[in-house]
Amino acid sequence: MKKRWLLLIPILLLIALIALNFWKRPSPSHPFFANFDTYPLVFAHADDTGQGLWPGNTMPFFRGVSELDVDVLELDVHMTKDGHIVVMHDDTVDRTTNGTGKITDLTLKEIKSLEVAGDWSPDGGATYPYRGQGLRVPTLAEVFYLFPDIPMNIEIKQTDPAIAVPFCAMLRNFKMTEKVLVPSFSNQAMADFRAVCPEVATAGSSSEVRSFVLLNFAFLSNLLSPAYQAFQVPEKSSEIPVVNPRFVDAAHGRNLQIHVWTVNHEEDMQRFIEMGVDGIMTDRPDLLLQKLGRP
């Protein structure tokens, strides 16, 4: 009897896998992607270390890359002590402004008193073109007001306190729900946002990417029913390959887009174009646009 049950176990597992495969569904199509006719998408990555053409997450950056006619503006958001959403990569103002402190401990007025990008240099410290120019940290509302027609990739950096409710309210008030894709490394931030703003497109969180990669290694990625529309991933993570033709094909099989970051060298751009990724995040959108024949 025991041997008979042991023989039944693989059969039962096979039946369970078949049932899961039958009930699982690919990611539903989302109107965010109706904004685009040509692929791969050119994402202007908001680098603020001097790798790009302008200091990321600043108005010169947004103006510059919009004039290049990129497909998607990339930016990062946090919330101030008094509930305003501002555009900045770090959770403190220390690295990119002439001030100090956590964004969550500062009011908007305090943050607006600081100069941003004064230490940004495009040439390794030979020049600092924005020093003393009075450049200020932008609010998300200012970005929406000035660039309402450009699709955006807005990464939630802050996790505590959660910003999902005010962020979603802004997207709705500015009628940006179909023009924004929201990623976050934080599983909790992503869950919070989807719960209050289900109509907005999102990217997979860290654990969702990890689950997909592991299942794909076992040829079981079709067992997932994604609650998101894209993966935004590096080519490798801790030397573990992530983006390769098999991963791209598996994601496409679940109606998921692949946006790879951060790609600044032309030979790598060409490689990912040939691989069939859906978007390339780069600090040098000018080079990528030229590569794609879109000067």
Task: Please give a handful of descriptors for the protein shown.
single chain; 295 residues; alpha/beta; 11 strands; 9-stranded mixed sheet; two-stranded antiparallel sheet
Please, could you describe this protein's structure?
- The strands form two sheets. Strands 1, 2, 3, 4, 5, 6, 7, 10 and 11 form a nine-stranded mixed sheet that branches. The chain has a two-stranded antiparallel ribbon with strand order 8-9.
- It has helices spanning 2-23, 59-67, 108-112, 140-146, 164-173, 187-196, 206-217, 245-253, 266-275, 285-291; strands at residues 41-44, 72-79, 85-87, 152-156, 180-182, 201-202, 230-234, 236-237, 240-241, 257-261, 279-282.
- A hairpin with a 5-residue loop joins strand 2 and strand 3.
- The protein contains ten helices and eleven strands.
- Helix 5 crosses helix 6.
- The protein is globular.
- The protein is α/β, with parallel strands linked by helices.
- Mean pLDDT is 92; it is low at 12-20.
- The chain is 34% helix and 15% strand.
Q: Tell me the distance between the termini.
A: 72 Å
Helix content: 25-40%
Instruction: Count the DSSP helices.
Output: 10
* Unreliable spans: 12-20
How is the quaternary structure best described? single chain
* Helix-and-strand structural type: alpha/beta
Largest sheet at a glance? Answer: 9 strands, mixed
Global shape: globular
H/E topology pattern: HEHEEHHEHEHEHEEEHEHEH
Beta strand %: 5-15%
Question: Radius of gyration in whole Å, from Cα?
Answer: 21 Å
Count of distinct strands: 11
Mean pLDDT: 92
